[in-house]
Amino acid sequence: MAGARRLPVDPIAEAKRQWIAHGWDDAAVGMTAVTSVIRAQQLLIGRVERTLKPFALSFARYEMLRLLAFTREGRMPMASAIARLQVHPTSVTNTVERLVRDGLVVREPHPTDGRAAILALTDDGRELVERATSALNTEVFAEPGLSGDDIEQLVSIIARLRRASGDFSDPRPLPEPL
């Protein structure tokens, strides 16, 4: 947690020292990178969750609402949502079930595929996601804890890692570099 007592030493730097002391020099830098990214994710998701708590939203629920709100009509096939959110279909199904239960999303029959469903944002869902987005923009995204140049470098480096891991391929024509 970001507001927790500061440690007198960086535990990740200490872990790197221990890795090297145990003869794992060739893996020490990679271990440091992986654990640093994981810890940074924990810190950021903590800020996001604290910001979304007054809206009774998890980040997964927020992402689904925001995804739907970005569409022209506030609706999309469930399969498209699963692909865009890059999470397991069961996770999306569980998230959607909660949003439906809370009246923020409705399931509609797919017009051409009887096995598929269309997800549609309700007026309450649209209103909630707009308020939650405003809070996230103010409390997290506008000031993530790094300078603008550092943010651009970080996003670029992580994008290279994601691309090399097969997370996405570059569209043609290429967008402006991150």
From TrEMBL:
The keyword Transcription applies. PROSITE patterns: HTH_MARR_1, HTH_MARR_2. InterPro entries: HTH_MarR-typ, MarR/SlyA-like, Tscrpt_reg_MarR-type_CS, WH-like_DNA-bd_sf, WH_DNA-bd_sf. The keyword Transcription applies. Keywords: DNA-binding, Transcription, Transcription regulation. It comes from the Bacteria. It holds the Pfam family MarR_2. One of its GO terms (molecular function) is DNA-binding transcription factor activity. GO terms for biological process: response to stress. Residues 27-163 form the HTH marR-type domain. PANTHER family: TRANSCRIPTIONAL REGULATOR, MARR FAMILY, TRANSCRIPTIONAL REPRESSOR MPRA. This is HTH marR-type domain-containing protein. It comes from Microbacterium lemovicicum.
